[in-house]
Amino acid sequence: MVEILIDEDACVGCGSCVDDCPNDVYKMNEEKWKTEVANVDDCMACLSCHEICPAQAMTHKDIHVAKRLYIDRRVNDVIERII
To answer: Which key words tag this protein in UniProt (predicted)?
Structure first.
């Protein structure tokens, strides 16, 4: 199971991870205005939240990423031309 740690001191409360997560793993704590993990069991370790976080406030533990699922298709096109 994935373990997700959010550094509350680093989190700026922008909500990008909440909006971007395809599985609704996160929610906003409206008192603190910080992101919280709400449904860790639904995390598929795509790391879209990590990629979009401007503060890099998230750490994912106990995952092995064999292939990044969240990548800009234009990057793939460039890589294919290089190879």
So the answer is: 4Fe-4S, Iron, Iron-sulfur, Metal-binding
Give CA separation, 75 vs 23, 25, 53, 70, in Å: 24, 26, 19, 11
For the stretch 23-53, pLDDT in tens is 999 999 999 999 999 999 999 888 899 999 9
* pLDDT of res. 46: 87
- CA-CA distances (angstroms) from residue 8 to 66, 67, 71? 29, 28, 26
Phi/psi at 46 (5° precision): -75, -20
- Three-class SS of residue 28? strand
Pick among 3.30.70.20, 3.40.50.300, 3.10.20.600, 2.40.10.240: CATH of 3-82: 3.30.70.20
Spatial contact of 53 and 16, defined as CB atoms under 8 Å apart: yes
